Amino acid sequence: MIDAPAxxxxxxxxxxxxxxxxxxxxxxxxxxxRVFAASRAMALPANGIVDFSTLTRxxxxxxxxxxxxxxxxxxxxxxxxxxxxxxxxRSLAVVYGVENLV
Length: 102
What we know:
The protein is α/β, with parallel strands linked by helices. The protein has a single domain (about 15-35, about 50-100), classed as STAS domain (Transcription Regulator spoIIAA). It is about 35% helix and about 25% strand. It contains three helices and four strands, in the order E-E-H-E-H-E-H. It has helices at about 30-40, 60-75, 85-95, and strands at about 15, 20-25, 50-60, 80-85. Strands 1-2-3-4 form a four-stranded mixed β-sheet. Strand 1 (about 15) and strand 2 form a beta hairpin. Helix 1 packs parallel to helix 2. The chain is globular, with a radius of gyration of 13 Å.
């Protein structure tokens, strides 16, 4: 018998909400490539806000996604504002020396 995944193990995705984006679910190494590819298929948020407050579980891959989104925003002339990152992800960004990029 295979156990159902825990609620915080739900596959994560960006959701267009109003003029912004919200990330829902988990974002780890296992699904980062899929999440990033899906984000590239979406138009950047009109208000430039990407909200991660409903991110349930993350590892360093989440930081890579955030930095990739920020680079894309700059390349498209639409800088993004990242909101709702957990304290643990912000701490991880400091450890890796990329806090100014997120």
